[in-house]
């Protein structure tokens, strides 16, 4: 396994979700939709992040998402690492839009540079070992709290974060049960990781 080729979000209403994502983020994100009524409550254990080049671009995407029906979880603001905010799509998916830049250097655009899938895991070390055994190379690793994989050919970057830390970063409670409502499309045979995240052949 060397890459994530797509992300499929399981939603109750594919037409409504499609309209939201087109209005909020455009058609560039490698996100697919599939109908599902699998039970789920609370935090689903993952977030999706759009990284952008400057604060004005973050504001543009966040404002578009809110106008399309997203709920605010963390208002856009400056921090020691940059600038960004968090919203929750009507289908329940949590999206973070962020930049490491603190000043605008170009006209505002709703273009994003990268999409990052962060999985909230119970044991970062065990999950890291699992994914390394499945062919992913580690790009960055910080003790037992965060791992980022090196997938240069992938349209989606994968990272692991301690579940409680990821929920705190998103502005929600870490409690949650039921389906993740997420299927990750890769270039390997189907498998399920230690935290129940499902991978299928893209």
Helix/strand structural class: alpha/beta
What's the SSE pattern? EHEEEHEEEEHEEEHEEEE
| Total DSSP E strands | 15
Highest-level CATH class: Alpha Beta
* Helical run tally: 4
Specify Rg, calculated over alpha carbons: 16 Å
What does the average pLDDT come to?
93
Q: What coarse outline follows from CA principal-axis ratios?
A: globular
Count of separate structural domains: 1
Question: What would your notes on this structure say?
Answer:
Strands 5-6-7-4-8-11-10-9 form an 8-stranded mixed β-sheet. It has a 5-stranded mixed β-sheet with strand order 2-1-13-15-14. A two-stranded antiparallel ribbon has the order 3-12. The chain has one domain: Roll (2,3-Dihydroxybiphenyl 1,2-Dioxygenase, domain 1). It is globular and about 45 Å long. The termini are close together. The chain has helices at 14-25, 55-67, 124-133, 163-170; strands at 4-11, 31-35, 40-42, 46-51, 71-79, 82-88, 94-99, 114-121, 137-142, 146-150, 156-162, 176-178, 182-186, 191-192, 198-201. The model has no long low-confidence stretch (mean pLDDT 93). The chain is an alpha/beta fold and 202 residues long. It is built from 4 helices and 15 strands. Helix 1 runs antiparallel to helix 2.
